[in-house]
What we know:
Order of helices and strands: HHHHEEEEEE
Strand order of the largest sheet: 1-4-5
Radius of gyration: 41 Å
Largest sheet: 3 strands, antiparallel
CATH superfamily of the largest domain: Head domain of nucleotide exchange factor GrpE
CATH class of the largest domain: Mainly Beta
Structural class: alpha+beta
Helix content: 55-70%
Number of domains: 3
Amino acid sequence: MGRKDRQEAAEQEKHTADEINNSAEQAVDTQNESNQEEVPELSVEEQLENKITGLNDKYLRLYSDFENFRKRTIKEKGDLISNASEGVVKDMLAVLDDFERAIENNQTSDDADAIKQGFQLIYNKFTNILVAKGVKAMDSKGQTFDIDHHEAITNIPADKKMKGKVVDVVEKGYFLNDKVLRYAKVVVGQ
């Protein structure tokens, strides 16, 4: 194809594209004219009523969307709370299995050292699970009595060195992620 042929083809394509554009513009103009003829003039009151109706519709849709969101959020929260302990309980089942095996073995075993060692292993497994879940025991004995961590069961007379300090721990206290899970029940020196 020569240079002249290519020029003619390009001009012909341009001419065809111009014709398509012109006919499209004419169709749009005709459509606009027909739309303008079909829409009667509305009075100000009718325009305001239409606007109010539209806004009320938007409001009702928004309100129903919000209500659906709120209900869904409440349901999801409830599901989360009811299933929150699933991981902890699942880990505790392993400890329960160990206790059942220990009980079975202890019925036929006469070796007290083996029984003690078995219970020590179960205890260690249990405490490791709790530590992994963020539970930490309080170290209260010998510490200054603190109402934010301790619950005083009784006061006993003590020497000057132990005054206002924890003399004995009746029930250990625990933290869960640095928040008091259970207060330590202690005996305080007076």
